[in-house]
């Protein structure tokens, strides 16, 4: 059964986490904005929770901070099994602009330091997209749980429908968007962790 985006509670302090990371790196808003390729105004709005970044922008900001998105959400390591119950998994919402469709990235794996695997469910509202090409170290595999999407890897456009799976090197420029008139959900696994 599909998990409605209303059941997810996106992490509400993404901006505060980015702000703290910027200060820990001794950077000004202006210097980080220049390094990340975004405007000072945009970065300020993100840090003050007035807007959500696109996935591409979030990647650019964390790369400029010499960290991954996963490191923003580091958890205290526990022994044994780490369990996330349905409806209780941490998630983050990203979007290109505040009035555009969102992508909810729902965590399936913990964010312990040194973790080698990163698994998420990407829930795309109708028309949502990742905001442009992303590149980073690693490998990715995905499985379309429901809906339809378009994955572009190294310029090749690949239509995806429910039941399709994919693999690619994360070093290739890649982006994706929902082409379905409803919600699309994709199980997405990366190694090493980047989200």
Number of helices: 5
Mean pLDDT figure: 88
Residue windows where pLDDT falls under 50 for at least 5 positions:
1-6
By DSSP, the count of extended strands is 9
- What distance separates the N and C termini? 25 Å
From the alpha-carbon coordinates, what is the Rg to the nearest angstrom? 16 Å
Strand-residue proportion: 25-35%
| Fraction in helix | 10-25%
What sequence of helices (H) and strands (E) makes up the elements? HHHHHEEEEEEEEE
Choose one word for the global shape. Answer: globular
Topology:
Layout: H1 14-24, H2 29-36, H3 40-47, H4 55-64, H5 69-72, E1 91-94, E2 103-107, E3 118-124, E4 139-146, E5 148-153, E6 156-161, E7 165-169, E8 174-178, E9 184-191
Antiparallel strand pairs: 1-2, 2-3, 3-9, 4-7, 4-9, 5-6, 5-8
Word description of this protein:
The chain is α+β, with helices and mostly antiparallel strands and 195 residues long. Helices cover 21% and strands 28% of the residues. It is built from 5 helices and 9 strands; from the N terminus they run αααααβββββββββ. The strands form 2 sheets. The chain has a 6-stranded antiparallel sheet with strand order 1-2-3-9-4-7, with no helix packed on it. A 3-stranded antiparallel sheet has the order 6-5-8, with no helix packed on it. Strand 1 and strand 2 (103-107) form a beta hairpin. The longest helix is centred in the first third of the chain and has 11 residues, at 14-24. The chain is globular.
């Amino acid at each position: 059964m599909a998990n409605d985006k209303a059941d997810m509670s996106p992490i509400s302090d993404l901006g505060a986490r980015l702000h703290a990371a910027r200060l820990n790196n001794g950077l000004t808003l202006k210097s980080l904005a220049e390094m990340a390729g975004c405007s000072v105004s945009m970065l300020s709005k993100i840090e003050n929770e007035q807007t959500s970044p696109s996935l591409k922008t979030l990647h650019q900001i964390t790369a400029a901070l010499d960290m991954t998105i996963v490191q923003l959400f580091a958890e205290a390591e526990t022994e044994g099994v780490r369990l996330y119950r349905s409806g209780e998994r941490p998630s983050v919402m990203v979007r290109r602009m505040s009035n555009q469709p969102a992508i909810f990235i729902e965590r399936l794996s913990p964010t312990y330091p040194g973790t080698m695997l990163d698994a998420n469910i990407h829930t795309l509202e109708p028309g949502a997209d990742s905001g442009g090409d992303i590149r980073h170290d690693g490998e990715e595999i995905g499985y379309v749980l429901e809906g339809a999407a378009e994955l572009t890897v190294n310029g090749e456009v690949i239509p995806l429908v429910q039941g399709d799976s994919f693999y690619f090197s994360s070093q290739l420029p890649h982006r994706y968007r929902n082409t379905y008139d409803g919600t699309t959900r994709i199980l997405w696994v990366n190694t090493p962790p980047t989200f």
